[in-house]
Amino acid sequence: MQIDSVNIGQTASAAVIIYEALKKAIIEGQLKDGEPLRQDEIARMFNTSRIPVREALTMLEQQGLVATQRYKGAVVAGISPDEAAEIWDFRALVEGRVIEMAVPRMTPETLAAARAHLEAFSNAANPVEWGDHNRHFHTTLYRDSALAYHLGIVEKTLDRVDRYLRAQLSLSNGVARANAEHEAILAACEAGDAARAAELTRRHILGAKANLLDLLSRG
Amino acid sequence: MQIDSVNIGQTASAAVIIYEALKKAIIEGQLKDGEPLRQDEIARMFNTSRIPVREALTMLEQQGLVATQRYKGAVVAGISPDEAAEIWDFRALVEGRVIEMAVPRMTPETLAAARAHLEAFSNAANPVEWGDHNRHFHTTLYRDSALAYHLGIVEKTLDRVDRYLRAQLSLSNGVARANAEHEAILAACEAGDAARAAELTRRHILGAKANLLDLLSRG
DNA sequence: TTATCGGTTATTGGATACAATATGCAAGAG
DNA sequence: CTCTTGCATATTGTATCCAATAACCGATAA
Q1: Does Transcription regulation show up as a keyword for this record (chains A, B) (predicted)?
Q2: Mean pLDDT within B113-117
């Protein structure tokens, strides 16, 4: 007998489910910097014991999203202006390289997907959507680089600062400027000009950095 | 009353102790690629239950040092030639930037410490010592950059590939060539030539990459 | 022979119970 | 009143036990 094989999604463990939910809440800013994460409380939310909760918190700590102190618990890890500045520099360095490697391999499908995110971004109406489409626009342009390690680092870095990225986009001129810069980056990709796409990406990120530092310094 | 305060080292949890021990064993190559890590076997080694072992394995998985399958356990994560090539490219990119930022801030103490590692490296007699002194030579030159995020990523990346770095150094001309290149890098740092130190570091890493790929392809 | 089925064992995932530590408060000494 | 001290409580860290799943192996039928 021959039947269609269905990809059994390898049902995730409770620890992973909790991890993903907490990560999403932190990334989207629903959990504020410094907010304590009580094992017992989270366990009750998910109808589990504290064991998988602890595993989830361990994962989040490894990613720098929470900070833990022995016998005192975990809190959502914030970020200082200095760290923010450094991380945006890091992004400019790595994402510039990644897009440069991606452009020569970029497919029409990828370009179309990126344009869809670009348009969705410019039509979006709230910070969560801005953040999502902005991020997906960029990572879509990166994926054809096929640089798995680089892409993993980029994703982890974006997870770490996603909250601040959203806040920066929400500034007065944030979305409009990002939109114009996205258009330019996409045009360079469509033209197959890797060096230009890289340079525009670096400028885009460093411009956002300046915007963000202004925001952070004003409180 | 006034007494000397002693820094109580915040005794580490069992999970962290196990994590560090396993990490060291993997990094130094005592645990081979693909070797399974049984929870209760490790628990017996450390006279603990499996709970802290699982936390340690979770941490190692987040760092990419082990790969886990649900209900099947964890194995030491190996690396493919493609991944190796990509990671060495990443190192060249990031470490080049880091040393460039470090040179203008580099203190005489740092330079002296780096020279000590350089000499210890050239006098070392076995792969473990080569690896340690090689790594410390480079990270010493990076530290004055004060780029905490970059340095964290560099350390994690080195952890991921330390085994292969050691193997590459052990090739016929590995140590001699590395030694000569280290001298040149250190000279550029002492001369305050940041751009040259960065370029030499990139070349050093990319040269090692070619060496390693040769090793991996030959088996 | 070879493929499939059933059960046995080994191993991991998770729940409950207990131990270790920190925090807050109230009582008492100065 | 202020500071210390000791206890009560809250929270985390770990051990033990049970549940879920995978791997192995022998028996059986085509």
Answers
A1: yes
A2: 96
